[in-house]
Write a sequence for this structure.
């Protein structure tokens, strides 16, 4: 059979021999390309790869626990999860900054235990700042009741009470209470008592003259102690 093939080859025209010699490699090459064209995604006709820049042959895309495809897919899922977390970073940071600012503002409203003298001075200064055109207010004295020593745990926010005595006219006293409770430092007026002033006639001016009212009030605030937190 080999002899007959050789004889047939020898008797074949030169042109046919060249066609066969060139044609067989081309046919083999075309067969190989046709076999792998889907796996390699030739000319971009089939896009069954991981992405446009990271192509993976279809032969490796086997859905088995130990395949390269399974490993890469698992890594992609993990990376996508981390990317989602990273993408939330700016929003989380924005919320954290807003919360930090709120906490700082809240803490700024509460005096520290070491600021008792400052709070006492503030309470007296607010009385002096009431305009005479509104009503007279004269600050007399203040007594501090410190309850910080009675805190049962580090998470407690102990109170501090300033027992204030002053005299003044009605409108001035009301303005003073308003100034205390609307101050940046948290304070609330509690247990207020007012002793009305006496009234007498002024014959020369033909009017009734009233003396100043005497006021006792408890101004309560809460103490922030970061060193105990």
């Amino acid at each position: 059979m080999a002899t007959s093939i050789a004889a047939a080859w020898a008797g074949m025209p030169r042109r046919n021999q060249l066609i066969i010699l060139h044609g067989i490699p081309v046919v083999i090459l075309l067969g190989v390309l046709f076999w792998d064209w889907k796996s390699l995604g030739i000319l971009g006709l089939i896009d069954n790869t991981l992405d446009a820049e990271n192509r993976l042959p279809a032969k490796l895309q086997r859905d088995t626990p130990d395949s390269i495809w399974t490993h890469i897919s698992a890594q992609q899922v993990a990376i996508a999860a981390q990317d989602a977390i990273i993408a939330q970073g700016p929003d989380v940071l924005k919320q954290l900054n807003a919360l930090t600012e709120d906490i700082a503002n809240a803490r700024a409203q509460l005096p520290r235990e070491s600021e008792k003298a400052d709070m006492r001075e503030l309470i007296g200064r607010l009385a002096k700042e009431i305009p005479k055109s509104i009503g007279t207010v004269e600050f007399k004295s203040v007594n501090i009741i410190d309850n910080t020593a009675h805190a049962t745990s580090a998470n407690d926010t102990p109170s501090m009470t300033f027992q204030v005595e002053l005299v003044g006219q009605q409108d001035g006293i009301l303005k003073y209470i308003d100034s205390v409770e609307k101050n940046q430092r948290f304070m609330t007026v509690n247990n207020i008592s007012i002793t009305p002033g006496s009234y007498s006639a002024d014959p020369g001016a033909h009017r009734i003259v009233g003396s100043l009212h005497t006021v006792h009030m408890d101004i309560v605030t809460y103490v922030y102690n970061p060193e105990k937190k």
Remarks:
- The chain has six helices and six strands.
- Confidence is low (pLDDT under 50) at residues 42-53.
- Residues 125 and 139 are 9 Å apart (CA to CA).
- Residues 2-85 form one domain.
